[in-house]
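Sample 3 of the quickstart, ligand uridine-5'-diphosphate:
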Amino acid sequence: MKKRRILVTGGAGFLGSHLCEKLLNMDHEVYCLDNFFTGQKDNIIHLLKNPWFELIRHDITMPFFIEADEIYNLACPASPIHYQYNAIKTIKTSIMGSLNMLGLAKRIKAKVLQASTSEVYGDPTEHPQTENYWGNVNPIGDRACYDEGKRCAEALFVNYHRQNQVRIKIMRIFNTYGPRMHPSDGRVISNFIVQALKNEDITVFGDGTQSRSFCYVDDMVDGIIQFMNTPENITGPVNIGNPVEHSILEIAEKILEFTGSRSKIVFKPLPTDDPLRRKPDISKLKNMIQWKPTVDMDDGLKKTINYFMKTL
Ligand code: NAD
Ligand code: UDP
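Result:
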């Protein structure tokens, strides 16, 4: 494959760092842009010695110019604790960040992929969620800064495509986990593993019967890159994730078993607007690319536990 110049915004974060690494392994030139709000230098420090890797400290709410062939737009805090910390900034990152990246893509004629989210479906009334479902989002709730920001970003992407023929790809990413999740970002898998390894209480919110479908990061990154390389007429939005659904209580029990921890499970109030069920219908993506998740939950959890055992 021809060497391409690829900009990855949010490249020092959890997903972004794996994406940068994989693109470099595919022999591309990678520009990693990040403001380090939730990203960490540790995530990409091993890439800095590669001459085809460039790290750029920048905030995507400000205009940015570079010559590139492709842009993966991942910059945005993704965990509820982090995106609610400065809700206005989260909205600005999704909306102004997307405007800046779309404007750049238009000017330099780059292809641009938006990391959208299952949160565009809110607390879904349809199960599993297909791309045709328009969602059930509270526009003024605690999660709105993230959900509505991402929904508006999708609207910006499709309209830059319709009006200005910008080459776009929109992926609705479902819960993803693995090494390099931030240890204090409060997302359920990293949180439970950190609690278990420290023998602290495992905090299950609600009664733990709410569900999520978790995808291991390597599978996710493979799918994102393959989708970016689909023909131009394919724009999405398309769901990506592992459709195997687990209750949160089940995840807590698995992590207790795999870590051999002395932690106890304690129940805490369910946060407002916490979706009760979530499971992607991925048939649309599977018709476009040769992709399916390959890492099962037990193996993925064990790999993630190993990572946290080394880094905590
Ligand atoms: P993350 O918090 O680890 O990574 C986000 C990165 O964006 C961080 O490095 C952060 O510093 C950077 N960033 C935030 N605001 C920025 C700004 N204004 N300018 C420049 N950089 C900025 O989260 P992640 O899990 O790696 O998520 C990456 C993307 O994927 C996000 O857009 C997120 O919404 C999307 N996504 C992730 C998941 C998941 O389960 N991990 C699910 C759905 C969607
Ligand atoms: N959760 C939990 N305990 C925690 C963190 C999260 O029970 O310490 C629950 C949370 O209420 C939600 C699910 O786990 O129902 C997934 O939460 P996460 O923040 O990882 O992702 P999201 O809600 O954005 O899917």
